[in-house]
């Protein structure tokens, strides 16, 4: 694994390993810098991993929606510098803070079970989706392409996470 050159702040409920979340995000940021002309130097990204009861509160307070959701994205808009994407959509670039992702571990595990997916595969998909929102993409073709790019390239990378995967813990 490459040495982490990014400022990634993770607040995760124990026993879910922060190192796994960090490795996924570091690989994503590296892929975006290498292949998509983004720069994350001196940029902060925050990830909160919560349970459904907390996600319900965030979803109601921030989105005026009832119930849990899998991931919420709150981009920071502290720069006027923009990157023009393929569809000429303005995407904020070179910000000091990308923003905050809030991920519900309960919803992630429930959805992985319902979709018949490996929970890590689903976690990668949700984080890629949330990161695309932080970069200014909205639901549509460009966002799905970026999410697919991150997910496909992540699966080709080797990462060094060696502690017990988060989905193997008893959950309740």
Entry keywords:
172 residues; alpha/beta; Collagenase (Catalytic Domain); four-stranded mixed β-sheet; 5 helices; 19% strand; cytoplasm
What topology does this entry show?
Elements lengths: L6 E6 L5 H19 L7 E7 L1 H12 L7 E5 L6 E3 L5 E3 L4 E8 H11 L3 H16 L6 H16 L16
Parallel strand pairs: 1-2, 2-6
Antiparallel strand pairs: 3-6, 4-5
Low-confidence stretches: 78-91
Number of strands: 6
Q: Structural class per helix/strand content?
A: alpha/beta
Determine the number of helices (DSSP H or I, runs of at least 4 residues): 5
Q: How would you characterize the largest beta sheet?
A: 4 strands, mixed
Question: In angstroms, what is the radius of gyration?
Answer: 16 Å
Strand order of the largest sheet: 1-2-6-3
CATH homologous superfamily designation:
Metalloproteases ("zincins"), catalytic domain
Strand content: 15-25%
Order of helices and strands: EHEHEEEEHHH
Average pLDDT confidence is 79
- Quaternary state of this entry equals single chain
At the first level of CATH, the class is: Alpha Beta
Description:
The protein is α/β, with parallel strands linked by helices. It has a single domain (7-161), classed as Metalloproteases ("zincins"), catalytic domain (Collagenase (Catalytic Domain), 3-Layer(aba) Sandwich), CATH 3.40.390. The protein has helices at 18-36, 52-63, 105-115, 119-134, 141-156; strands spanning 7-12, 44-50, 71-75, 82-84, 90-92, 97-104. It has a 4-stranded mixed sheet with strand order 1-2-6-3. The protein has a two-stranded antiparallel ribbon with strand order 4-5. Residues 78-91 have low confidence and may be disordered. It comes from Taurinivorans muris.
